[in-house]
Amino acid sequence: MNKLDDSNIAYTLIKLCKLDGLKIASPPCPFDGLESDYFIQLGNQDFFHVKTGTNYEFYKTQALGQVDECSALLQFKESFAISKSVSADPLAYPKVSFWTREGDGNRSNCCSWDGVECDEDFGHVVGLDLRSSCLYEISKLSKLSTLDLSFNDQKLDDSIPLKLTKANMRSLVQNLTTIKQLHLNWVEMYSTVPDILVNASSLTSLQLGDCELNGEFPIGIFHLPNLEVLDVEGFDQNPINLPWQNLRSLDLQTNMLQGSLPIPPQSIRNYMVGSNHYSGEISPSFCNLNHLQILDLSNNNLSGMLPQCLGNSSALEISMLTNNSFHGSIPQMCPDENSLKMVDSSYNQLQGKIPRSMANCTQLEFINLENNQISDIFPSWSGALPALRALVLRSNRFHGMIGKSAANHDFPKLCIIDLSNNGFLGMLPSNYLENWNSMKFVGKNQQHYFSVFEKFDSSDKYAYFYAYPYSITTFAKEVELKYTNTPYLLRLIYRFLK
User: Where in the numbering of this chain does the Leucine-rich repeat-containing N-terminal plant-type domain appear (predicted)?
Assistant: First the structure.
């Protein structure tokens, strides 16, 4: 291959003949300090994965590698730029730097190269483990003419994402006829979604979030028979019926979808449809989703009363209902065993009291009920929540003195509290101010923003680290400050008389 010929990049990995999957994405959030890595996957039934992300178990077997595939890996190696400064992992090292065909027989065998996995019978390359390998740029990959990467952090930190600059999505996927997993999250393509994906019947996971896609979305994708994960944006055809009985994750955030909420199957774990134009009420059938971990209905036109059974799930971790028109009381939540970490029901018309069952939410980090019509006294019982970092009750109808609970709980991890624009009387108890140690000190945590992380299941082949940032609104000198991502260094006590 002529390296100066930008139009023939197809040969870079074309000889990896078992390839039927392609994934180029970044991890969605900082985790375990691996803020600077990104994730690349090339997967199929034989070619399982290529990854530079977080920790997964990886098994490597040695065999005599196929000569043409070893050569393809050397061309693949040339696609990367390497810098030790891009990885926060202290054990990171540039694995591909040691790939070479020179030297003794064992060293020239690509199945012995660090990060390369081959099948034992035929020596085909079936996996690449490039996590924490100090990689930060790809200039050529498979069918791409140019794929530039300037990546030092996640998109949550306003980093520069992967960019596809000289080709479109069709040129990337047109020869992947048996593809099973196509993951292009955070790859800026400014491309249409090719209709040839409608024929990719083997697809089980399609992730095209934050790709700057445009044009008409092929509605036939909603009829692919085997999808378990779907993450797409930039379209307006509402999939009223979800035909997949094994659907695990549905991410339709930031589209132009209207009508009623599509009802997911029992298998669903992540249901994320925020920032659309959905209307109507939440169906009581959502109460039967026993595996649901993320429920994000934020920023829609939904209304009605919340089903009182909605908080009964022991699996639910993140509940995002903000910026709708829900009214009525807040459902009881947190049964004896629960996983709830985030409740954001701000900017609705909810009334009544905060359910006392929330005292059972021992993993709860973030409560935001601002801009509702809740009439209650100060929830001093919430001081017993061991993980609570943010309590936002601004602009409601809370009243009475701000007292301490009889058990003398004192919010051990509280960093943010906003009680403003209510009817509270008196001052905060001095003991609160003395004992709120998390208000006084900022540890060495490398987080840039407060976030809630979904529990990671290493046995789930489609598992991702989903992160939901704390989102709050406050005032400084009568100027409204909206924090879509709340800085980790922020410490806030906001209290004034109504």
Answer: 69-119
pLDDT of residue 31: 33
Residue of 322 and 43 predicted with greater confidence:
322
The confidence score (pLDDT) of residue 16 equals: 53
Tracing tokens 């920032």 back to the chain, one arrives at 275
Comparing C-alpha atoms, which of 27, 24, 25 is closest to residue 467?
Answer: 27
Token couple for 54: 């977080």
- Pair 392, 346: CB distance under 8 Å: yes
Q: Where are the domains of the chain?
A: 6-155
Q: How far apart are CA 462 and CA 482, in angstroms?
A: 33
Q: Which long-range contacts (CB under 8 A, 24 or more apart) does 169-175 make?
A: 169/193, 169/194, 169/211, 169/213, 170/194, 170/196, 171/143, 171/144, 171/145, 172/22, 172/142, 172/143, 172/144, 173/22, 173/197, 173/200, 174/143, 175/10, 175/143
Q: Across residues 205-230, what is the average pLDDT?
A: 84
Coil, helix or strand at residue 4: coil
Which amino acid is located at 459 in the chain? S
Q: Which residue has the higher pLDDT, 154 or 356?
A: 356
Tell me the pairing of strands 270-272 and 294-296. parallel
Provide the token pair at 464: 């991702």
Per the CB < 8 A criterion, the answer to whether 397 and 421 are in contact is no
The closest of 172, 204, 155, 208 to 38, measured between CA atoms, is 155
Report CA 466 to chain centroid distance, whole Å: 3
pLDDT of residue 157: 45
